[in-house]
Amino acid sequence: MNDVMSMGLHRCWKRRLVSILSPRPGMRMLDVAGGTGSLQNDDVLGDVTFKFLLEYRKRFPISSAESPRVTIVDINPAMLEVGQKRATNMLPTDLQHLIEWRCADAEQLTQSTSKGPGVPAAAFDAYTIAFGIRNCTSIEKVLAQAHRTLVPGGLLAVLEFSPQLETNGTLGAIFQNVYDLYSTYGIPALGTLIGGNREPYQYLIESIRKFPTNETFATMIEAAGFSHVHVETLAGGICAIHTAVKLQ
User: What's an example GO BP annotation here (predicted)?
Assistant: First the structure.
């Protein structure tokens, strides 16, 4: 679905997200809505965790003492099962043990379930959620849980589609009109053609349009207790990366 919406660019955007995270020894990352992952046969990775670990592997040797650890959280146990199988089949063996898979609700990470314990407080150096927060019922609750799980100095990084493009001048207005036509008619039609089901792609468009603007979302992040909020727009504003720091 992200391929259709972004015309494949979401992989580049996730690489940019990983570069901001800057993998380092001993780092602990919480990847929320990590889902199934999206490993490709050509080693172009669609999942943030897989990209993160492979980038670390390029920079540092893998050692049990200093290697980073990633906890992938998703509310759907079936998606987690698929993700685990993909990691086992396609991720290098020396990286597989660095991932923990946990079934939990992004809005209620403290709650233990039949699938496992809740997510502890002040336990992670980075919290990331890519193309997932707009699907949550309460953005405020998700941000509150993100703040709770991070250590002081921890980094929040959110990659999400934006409801409004950067439309400066005539060219920007034309781009907005073309994008609106593509999202309104093209994406649902492609969904029908590719997957035989229009509704998920129609929901995708509607969820993006209902998502807060970049400025409003930045304000919500600050209200959750974060500081140093920064917004980086990508592809003319089709999506954005919001980052912020938990000071205490």
Answer: methylation
